[in-house]
Design brief:
With 382 residues, the protein is α+β, with helices and mostly antiparallel strands. The chain has helices at residues 14-24, 42-53, 76-86, 122-133, 153-166, 184-189, 208-219; strands spanning 2-7, 10-13, 32-41, 56-59, 66-75, 90-94, 97-101, 111-116, 138-141, 146-151, 172-183, 223-227, 230-234, 239-255, 258-278, 284-298, 303-317, 322-339, 354-373. Residues 8-29, 196-208 and 378-382 have low confidence and may be disordered. Keywords: Signal, Transport.
Length: 382
């Protein structure tokens, strides 16, 4: 057996260090360590690491065996976790006291284990843990955001490692969105066409040309900004925006040959859903669904129907670059009345002084989206 422990420039045998500190009760400041171990008892290594970091550690009598390991410049607590994981040991904390057990003598015995989650959703962690513990043996308590397991120590050790990897701060995406309404004749006059194939490099290249033309239309009154919302979206979670209203829509139901009509309220206006996936390089892959619903009154039914235009896409977005969604054209017919005052109100003859006509109006909705991964500090879970 050979155990060497190094902090700073001092080398000491690990066994003597553990025994000496245990007898003298000297505190040692936690710092990065170099550990060289060759066929050393696991219990001795764990005790020495705990003493070096000032950790209150209880080692179960089921922990045995030897270990060979070489670690450089790692904290003592991290070395304990790595050693426990390599030996399939359960390492858990209860307040200021840590426990390590192998549970080999009680593999069939079941106990209750709990983990207080700091970041992850307990139900999603429970579903992942069921792959190890099986259904019916693990649950969660929503009021305390805790995961509860009724199982063996070996199962608890596996679940503990899973919790350590899943219970981490959730990354977020900052999303800036701009909705613009354009006059279609102005778009045609400037020769704007949403054809990305005509641009070298695809939709992620030189998109500022489109943005510049939109700003020019806005300055001339040919484009109008409808809204500029700004929101945060969690990684993998859908965020939604609705700019509009809820419109009563008449719906018919047929039951046993009888027709009944009910009024249901549906969303009309501009709806956008954004589901991000953050990558290591800071880019964001997003599933985007844009929908424009226009209510149209049906005189015969004395109710509204909603016409919908929708765009659905998955796209990779680089930090700080605009994504443009265009081509959502709205066509609206407007009934107009012109009349001669007083004369148009004369019965029968008044029709000669009234003029009804229908005008058509086309507008195009353009959506600009800019996203970036929000900075988050690496927070320790335990």
């Amino acid at each position: 057996m050979k155990c060497i422990f190094k902090t700073g420039k001092t080398w000491l045998p690990l066994r003597f260090l553990a025994m000496g500190m245990m007898l003298m009760g000297w505190p040692v400041q936690a710092e990065a360590l170099d550990v060289r171990v060759h066929e050393a008892p696991v219990r001795t290594v764990l005790a020495g690491l705990a003493r070096s970091a000032g950790i209150n550690l209880v080692i179960d009598d089921t922990v045995d065996g030897t270990v060979t390991m070489e670690l450089h410049d790692v904290p003592a607590e991290e070395a304990i976790r790595v050693l426990a994981g390599s030996q399939n040991l359960l390492y858990r904390t209860d307040g200021a006291i840590a426990f390590i057990t192998a549970g080999r003598a009680h593999d069939q015995a079941r106990s209750c284990y709990t983990w207080k989650l700091h970041h992850a959703d307990p139900d999603s962690v429970r579903q992942a843990a069921e792959a190890m513990a099986g259904s019916g043996h693990i649950g969660y308590h929503s009021d305390t955001n805790a995961l509860v397991l009724h199982g063996s120590a070996q199962t608890a050790a596996a679940v503990d490692r899973l919790v350590q990897s899943l219970d981490v701060p959730v990354r977020q995406v900052s999303v800036e969105i701009e909705f613009l309404s354009l006059q279609t004749d102005a778009v045609k006059d400037r020769g704007i066409s949403w054809d990305w194939t005509a641009m070298e490099g695809g939709p992620g290249h030189r998109s500022f040309l489109y943005t510049g033309q939109l700003r020019a239309l806005e300055s001339k009154g040919k484009a109008r900004v409808l809204a500029r919302p700004h929101l945060m979206a969690q990684n993998g979670r859908e965020a939604q925006i609705l700019i509009g209203d809820r419109i009563p829509v008449l719906t018919e139901h047929v039951t046993d040959g009888e027709v009944s009509r009910t009024t249901e309220y549906e969303d009309a206006g501009i709806k956008l859903s954004f589901t991000p996936r953050i990558h290591e390089d800071g880019s964001v892959t997003a599933h985007i669904r844009a929908e424009v619903g226009t209510p149209i009154l049906v005189p015969e039914l004395k109710a509204y129907r909603i016409t919908t235009r929708r765009a659905d896409t998955d796209v990779c977005m680089q930090p700080g670059r605009d994504l443009l969604i265009g081509g959502l054209i709205s066509r609206e017919e407007i009934n107009n009345l012109r009349k001669v005052p007083i004369l148009a109100d004369i019965p029968v003859l008044g029709k000669l002084f009234r003029y009804h006509y229908t005008s058509k109006k086309e507008t195009e909705l353009v959506i600009l989206i800019r996203s970036r991964a929000a900075s988050s500090s690496p927070e320790s879970v335990r």
